[in-house]
């Protein structure tokens, strides 16, 4: 399950989510901006950086690391990345906080002796999702994070509950974002099922999903006639090709023809998968995994 990309999307949708996990969040959580950065020489990739508002200079910067696999060098890397970035941007920040999110304590690095002082510092926050409490009692966006850790047997029931709860608690636009996030999480959990099958599991329809809405909007803008299957498929194909070009570059003719041969359900699945693509190799790998 590709949890890094899920948490990246969660933090993009709701940067304040990180601060709901902390005991002492800053007073201006709504003003923070989520970003991801690279530190060169040597090059480090930091999962997430929460930058203070520009009018608060210097401000406190928050570094977030989501770790769902055992890594016995995690703390070496996290502290090296964070302090190096802080050092190189010292004039912008007055302080730093490090937040490490685990599914459970069993995933944490075993040998922590070199880092006792840092780990016991108020500047370091270790979050264990399985210790946050009943998923149904948590704030909605925090519950989405916990949903990534729920057993497959329980996941469908909890996902349906969160969808129903979002309809009661959130405005329409936020509700749509939550529908998309729940669907994405469940697609990653059940990789052997298509997105359409997952939507059926959750009791939602194609018309409620993000890719369908984008296709419909594209059709309106270009004056395309809606309502027929072949029309939706043509619009979906145009949108997917445009999105792929932005993600991986200009498509070779044979690749373009391959995309154009996909059915609507396959285009839906590709539309979700391409959000994680970094290059043409990812698209080739996606085609290799499909059974046409």
UniProtKB/TrEMBL annotation:
What parts of the sequence cross the membrane?
Answer: none
One Pfam entry for this protein is: DUF2887
Give coiled-coil spans as residue ranges.
none
The residue ranges of the DUF4351 domain are: 229-287
* InterPro entries, sorted: DUF2887, DUF4351, RpnA
**What name goes with this protein?**
Rpn family recombination-promoting nuclease/putative transposase
